[in-house]
Amino acid sequence: MHTKTRMMGRLALAAACYFTLAAGQAQGVAAQSGDPARWYVEDATAQQQLRTLRKEIGAALQEALADCKRQPAAERGACVKEARATYQQDMANAQQQRAAAHPQ
To answer: What percent of the chain has pLDDT over 70?
Structure first.
């Protein structure tokens, strides 16, 4: 159960980052020193927004799998299974998440 809570936390963090970035772009947030300029270029089309969201979902999966590798061997299989299920669910709902973050 602890693993599921951690995974949901990571997913929530990834979604929060995505929504914060979208809001920051809308408000014209100034780039921080050392940040690549591309981080502050708004995705203009729904296709670009969806591609970015899918990248973030994939990154969240990689982080979750890395966490699973640090779990005891007895818990690792369930952790990986849960991480992949969360990934599949997020990818299936990506379009709805994008629409919620960028209402037309």
So the answer is: 70
pTM of the predicted protein model? 0.66
pLDDT per residue as tens digits for the range 8-35: 566 555 655 565 555 555 555 566 778 8
Q: How far apart are CA 62 and CA 101, in angstroms?
A: 23
Interacting residues of 15 by C-beta distance below 8 A, sequence separation 6+: 97
- Type of residue found at 39: W
- Cα separation, 92 vs 89, whole angstroms: 5
Q: In angstroms, how far is CA 32 from the centroid of its own chain?
A: 21
- 83 Cβ contact partners less than 8 Å away, ≥ 6 residues apart: 7, 61, 64, 65, 67, 68
User: Which one has a higher pLDDT value, 44 or 57?
Assistant: 57
Q: What contacts 85, CB < 8 A, 6 or more positions away? A: none
